[in-house]
Amino acid sequence: MKVVTAGTGMAAAEFVQRLRLEGFDGEIVMCSDEEFAPYSPCVIPFYLAGEPMDTVYWKGKDFYGRYGVSARLADPIIEVDAERRLVRTAAGRSETYDRLFYATGARSWYPRPEWLKTRGVFGFKTLTDMVAIDRYIREHGVRKAVVFGGGFIGVDAALALRHRGLEITLVHRNTRVLSQMTDGEGGEFATRKLAEKTGIDIRLRTTVDGIVENGGELSAVRFSNGDVMETPLLIVSIGVSPNSEPLRGDDKGVHGNEQMLADPCIYTAGDVAVTRHAVTRAKGVYATYPNAMMQARTAARHLFRGDGAYAGSINTNVLKKHIDFPIVSAGSFTGETVTWHRGDIWRRVYLLDGMINGYLIIGDTRISGYIYHLYLSRKRVDKTIRAILAEPRHDSYYRSMLGMVPV
Fold first, then answer.
1. Cα separation of 226 and 107, whole Å?
2. Helices (H), 62-176
């Protein structure tokens, strides 16, 4: 049997590794639009912040050779012919398959794609982006940057570049940063604290409306309020969309069943996969590392053993790189709110039918594992959650397991 992966990201690498560890000895071909060994998108901001490049290859830079893979790199797949069981690439090559693992991830969305033709304007999604940004900073002695977009990726970019020593202005159209992973009050608290702790100039209700070039290089940006700021570097991180066009013809994602099958011969996983939520059962793209890993393992087990099922995704978000001020959230921000706040720590859960329907924890992570456990287990907590959130020792989960009385 010949297996082809569309993509070489975290899900594809996990899928291939699991197949080989299970004993699969058939041909494996991995296709990518980049030129690298499988890397972790979670780690690449550390490279831009100054860590060695090898740190991004979390399964090893020698992955292809170690797992007996034929790599087809720097040549994106542009079409999947499911009837003939083959993929076609931008360079005109084709690759047949018996089974296809479609894990092409998501791609950045740009309001003005033509800006990227200007030297000094970059996206912030791939290792290719990081290498280009790093080279540009070193070659031009860049000391300041504007980040356009205050979602998870934009804040990640701002923190990484700040850690590297750059002066950062973060521009966001919303009333708070991280608006997809926070509620209104919690997001405003997090925005204030991020600005206080980092010195990042956060400009809300603002967008970048234009750029100023000088000889093909960026020299300034124009904001929606009319201000103009000189800067040699602009990072655009407005949003992403599933890279599903080669298979489905649109960017709505690829639906996978409980075995992660999108087609009798095609598996899917990762940021392109549409799955059911483990709690609500609502269908969506839940783009997180844990979800991608479990989806890949489910697909590998099913291909090799013919059994196994994916239990569902969780929309957990964790921001804690390059700053001692983590922000953790999951679930839906609907229901009765229970909030506890002291100093730099802010905690809130949303209750529905006495169970946690969603939560947001800002400032530390000591209680987040316990809250996640309560959320996923669907236990009623309406009688105890106020005391849990206000627990000064932050160890109520471990004490309860040991049968110890809270103090």
1. 30
2. 63-66, 127-140, 152-163
